[in-house]
């Protein structure tokens, strides 16, 4: 990469660039400070801790970018053979053309000027050995841009995840207010005896299909798309929680929706965190974006499959709670009383589902960030988007998974696990 060095650059130009970057950084830091101050004032401890985690994740991305800057010269001077460099390319056809063209350029006596220009960019050492840089300076610069885009998408998906989750819970407010009415108390008389199958919860979860495991999973799979949390499930799980954790005197004034809302905020701390295993899997995803692997046909579907499996499992857990009611007796007194337990979850670990949700949301944000970066950096006509179905799949899957996971799966998880 040619151009003037700082010793040939006016000091006013350097000062202006530094001033602009410093101003932007101070403004962003001040915005985070104001948000944190507001969260403290509203006693949103969990959200404040989530904000601190987001700041630390951004700091980590900034540190990675700094290491790239410091090590740019060292990395670009590492030489590898053309044969090795010709593997695992996102655009094999361009690479093959470049590999054929470069030796001809450097063997030609009429291209000495071009050779000196390339040498000024740090490639002379590798070219003299008939090799190519491990990662060129231009490639490292493009990685800087990708890190910035990933940071932006990480913040955006965190905001969108919390907003959609709270929007879903806003619909439960009407049901919660209904439990305070006399009509609700009359229709749910605690002294009334009914058959378990005749209750609203029983009619939904105690049918012929509940006797067959395959049918249970199939029906629960589709339930997450249509009324994932119906009124009867919410009220029954609410009743089970209050009977297990609250005394008779405090049940009538307890706001279960607010409790679940605070629970979602606690879970949000895990959702925004990017653990080392997730980072390593992300690196593998970068590796898989290789020409000939048709990654656009399967990588975007990995988060989708996981979130659908998790959503189905949560629906199955509610159905199994209904089956336990009938196992305790055909007749119930008052509302059906669910009997939860950790054994209903995979490996007896309810938090495992939350970690899977965390993985899905970050990988979805990463893939959307990668798509946006390649579209802006290389254009929509580049080899990254040479297939029309590639663009359609990535955008549609990204939007659908974000909505399904944030609006359906995460609130459902918060509801089910609190009853446990």
UniProtKB/TrEMBL annotation:
Pfam families: Mlo. It is found in: Membrane. Keywords: Calmodulin-binding, Membrane, Pathogenesis-related protein, Plant defense, Transmembrane, Transmembrane helix. It is a multi-pass membrane protein. Coiled coil: none annotated. GO terms for molecular function: calmodulin binding. One of its GO terms (biological process) is defense response. It comes from the Eukaryota. The keyword Secreted does not apply. The chain crosses the membrane at residues 12-35, 56-75, 143-164, 270-290, 296-318, 352-371, 391-416. InterPro entries: Mlo. One of its GO terms (cellular component) is membrane. May be involved in modulation of pathogen defense and leaf cell death. The C-terminus contains a calmodulin-binding domain, which binds calmodulin in a calcium-dependent fashion. Belongs to the MLO family. This is MLO-like protein. The gene is MLO.
């Amino acid at each position: 990469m040619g151009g003037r060095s700082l010793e040939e650059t006016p000091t006013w130009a350097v000062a202006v660039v530094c001033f602009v970057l410093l101003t932007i950084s101070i403004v962003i830091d001040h915005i985070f400070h104001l948000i944190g101050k507001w969260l403290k004032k509203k006693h949103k401890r969990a959200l404040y801790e989530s904000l601190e985690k987001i700041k630390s994740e951004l700091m980590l991305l900034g540190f990675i970018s700094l290491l790239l800057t410091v090590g740019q010269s060292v990395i670009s001077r590492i030489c590898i053979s053309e044969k090795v460099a010709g593997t695992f390319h996102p655009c094999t056809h361009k690479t093959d053309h470049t590999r054929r063209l470069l030796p001809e350029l450097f063997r030609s006596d009429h291209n000495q000027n071009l050779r000196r220009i390339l040498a000024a960019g740090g490639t002379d050492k590798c070219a003299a050995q008939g090799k190519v840089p491990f990662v060129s300076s231009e490639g490292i610069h493009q990685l800087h841009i990708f890190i910035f885009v990933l940071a932006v998408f990480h913040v955006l998906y965190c905001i969108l995840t919390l907003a959609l989750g709270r929007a879903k819970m806003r619909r439960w407010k009407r049901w919660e207010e209904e439990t305070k009415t006399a009509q609700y108390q009359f229709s749910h008389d605690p002294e009334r005896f009914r058959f378990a199958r005749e209750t609203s919860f029983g009619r939904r979860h105690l049918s012929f299909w509940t006797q067959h495991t395959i049918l249970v999973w199939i029906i629960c799979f589709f339930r997450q798309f249509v009324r994932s949390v119906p009124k009867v499930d919410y009220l029954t799980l609410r009743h089970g929680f209050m009977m297990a954790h609250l005394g008779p005197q405090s049940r009538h004034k307890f706001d279960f929706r607010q409790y679940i809302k605070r629970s979602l905020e606690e879970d949000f701390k895990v959702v925004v965190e990017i653990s080392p295993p997730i980072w390593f899997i992300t690196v593998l995803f970068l590796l898989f974006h290789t020409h000939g692997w048709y990654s656009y046909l399967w990588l975007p579907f990995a988060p989708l499959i996981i979130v659908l499996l998790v959503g189905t499992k949560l629906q199955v857990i509610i159905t199994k709670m209904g089956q336990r009611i009938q196992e305790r007796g055909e007749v119930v007194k008052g509302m059906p009383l669910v009997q939860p337990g950790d054994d209903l979850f995979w490996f007896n670990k309810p938090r495992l589902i939350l970690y899977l949700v965390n993985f899905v949301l970050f990988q979805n944000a990463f893939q959307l960030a990668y798509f946006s970066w390649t579209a802006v950096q290389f254009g929509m006509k580049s080899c990254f988007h040479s297939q029309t179905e590639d663009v359609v799949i990535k955008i549609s899957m990204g939007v659908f998974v974000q909505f399904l996971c944030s609006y359906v799966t995460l609130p459902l998880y918060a509801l089910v696990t609190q009853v446990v």
